[in-house]
Amino acid sequence: MPGCEYKQFRIMQATTYEDKYGKVLAFYRDLAALVRPARFYDLGCWQGGISALMADLGVPAVAVDMDPAPLLEGYPGVEFHRDDYMGSADKYLMMIADETGPVVVLCDGGGGEEAKLEQALRYAPGLRVGDVLLTHDFGEVAESGGTTPARLYPAMAALGYDRLEMDGYDPLLMGLSMHVRVRADA
Ligand SMILES: C[S@@+](CC[C@H](N)C(=O)[O-])C[C@H]1O[C@@H](n2cnc3c(N)ncnc32)[C@H](O)[C@@H]1O
């Protein structure tokens, strides 16, 4: 399985980077430093490795999955919700609305192109200016999930999002599409 390891967790983020382990971890470290999120929302967290990493970087995390995430039990800085992030989307959007600083929301529930679009577009309208939405599996290369961003990008732009660029990273190589909300009136 492509991806990387963090502590005893597996992280599914695929990458064509040569240093696929270190680069994924470095990406989240640099993202945390750039955005300085008040909280990280990990929607479809699987084992929860990225939430654990973010918590260790000082960013508290809300991790959601319909399946149990035993490695997250009692993990400092991570609040695990065994829940349906679609059915309970209003609840998580209300939590986000109450945050005192920017959030990063990672949509990685998988399930094919329609499900990926549905997840991103369920959350995107509810985020605030300065919040960041990351979606996984929107890379243009097969190893990154291969889902075309052709429908996602215009939809995000119409909702007032710009693509977030980070020096030193081409997030598409990790299968990640990054969007920062710059207008909420769209
Ligand atoms: C691709 S995995 C996430 C991998 C993780 N982000 C990582 O990189 O390690 C997708 C996860 O989303 C969860 N999932 C899918 N649909 C869901 C839903 N509606 N509500 C909650 N979890 C869901 C699945 O149970 C699965 O664990």
Based on the model shown, name its key terms.
186 residues, globular, binds S-adenosylmethionine, two-stranded antiparallel sheet, alpha/beta, single chain, Rossmann fold
Write a structural description.
The chain is globular, with a radius of gyration of 15 Å. Strands 5-4-3-6-7-9-8 form a seven-stranded mixed sheet, with helices on both faces. It has a two-stranded antiparallel ribbon with strand order 1-2. The chain contains five helices and nine strands, in the order ββαβαββαβαβαββ. It has helices at 20-35, 49-56, 89-97, 113-123, 152-158, and strands spanning 4-6, 9-11, 39-43, 61-65, 78-82, 103-107, 132-136, 161-163, 176-181. It has a single domain (4-17, 35-181), classed as Vaccinia Virus protein VP39 (Rossmann fold). It has 186 residues and is α/β, with parallel strands linked by helices. Bound molecules: S-adenosylmethionine (SAM). Residues 11-13, 44-47, 49-50, 64-67, 84-86, 108-111 line the site of S-adenosylmethionine. The site of S-adenosylmethionine has 20 residues, from helix 2 and strand 4.
Give me a quick take on this structure:
The protein has helices spanning 20-35, 49-56, 89-97, 113-123, 152-158; strands spanning 4-6, 9-11, 39-43, 61-65, 78-82, 103-107, 132-136, 161-163, 176-181.
How are the SSEs placed, and which strands pair?
Layout: E1 4-6, E2 9-11, H1 20-35, E3 39-43, H2 49-56, E4 61-65, E5 78-82, H3 89-97, E6 103-107, H4 113-123, E7 132-136, H5 152-158, E8 161-163, E9 176-181
Parallel strand pairs: 3-4, 3-6, 4-5, 6-7
Antiparallel strand pairs: 1-2, 7-9, 8-9
This protein binds S-adenosylmethionine.
